Amino acid sequence: MGTGVELTQIIDGCKSGDAECFAQVVDLYGGRCYGYFYRLTGDRDLSDELLSELFMKLVEKIGSYKGGSFESWLFRIASNIFHDHLRGRKRQKKLVEGRRTELELRPIEAAQSDLTPDKVDRLQTQLSRLDADTRELIVLRYYSELSFKEIAEMRSEPLGTALSKLHRGLKKLRELMEG
Amino acid sequence: MNDHMYDELRELLKRLMAPSEAGPIEQDIRSGDRLFDVHPAPQITPETLAAIKHQITVQLGTSHRPAHSFYRYIAAAAVIAVTLIGFFGRSNRETPGVSYASLIPTAIWESEDLASDDAELAYFRSELRHIETQMQALEAGDGELVAAGSLDEVELELIRIDTQFWKE
Q: Predicted ipTM?
């Protein structure tokens, strides 16, 4: 990871439309953002798509970055993209369910349809058994490497709440992995 | 996870929890983090990275380049071609012709806007015809069309366009 000064120079380059600087941001953060999306979706192709969308948004919105923690800013966009995706999927699911009732088809788990066992590792399976909010908190903290203060701010919740939620979630995850 | 993050966690736990609770909680969180270290998410493929970088370049190209800059590309290409023709025409009258196709920026052909492309193509063709006329005049030894004075003007125009083009 580059130093603060290097990162500032890279971001300045991005603001002036330098493709090479954007490429450096992709190299610096692509892996972590991909991990974030993958652990939330369990789907490599979808993670590719969301990652691509994230960096396109970055190009579009870099002018609105006014300093402060770049990671925090970037992962906030990543989180918004993930939630937009969830909202879209919910709409799609509603449509599928409406159609299913109409045609009296047997239940289809639309959200799970693209998940095959070889695509999903054990941690992914157990992560999916946690509630969505705790899962997102755990994944966000691990991949963004943000401070608790930044995470609590991003999630608009008190520091203590975020901390205890994370503690309970990770403890449960470990129990599930050991069970 | 970096050490700085655990330092922050320790500080936070000291502040928010009783000392007897802080230690076990920190251990639980560290153990949970290790699960992610032991079971890493798949790596992003080099193809995906390359595709994203390419998309960024394309997006930057479309968002930072105003529509009229297409004509500047063409004008710059045409001026360069005429200058080269003039140069070769003066130094070697026997040169059969100059290839100007390679001077056309490939980005022109990446557009999907057919209506706009047609208009741009017509403009481009007219520029080519103009260059062709100049080239024929040179080959025929007609000094009136591309006289030394007009070549100087063309060069000045080239410098002006080139400077404006790279400023954008």
A: 0.83
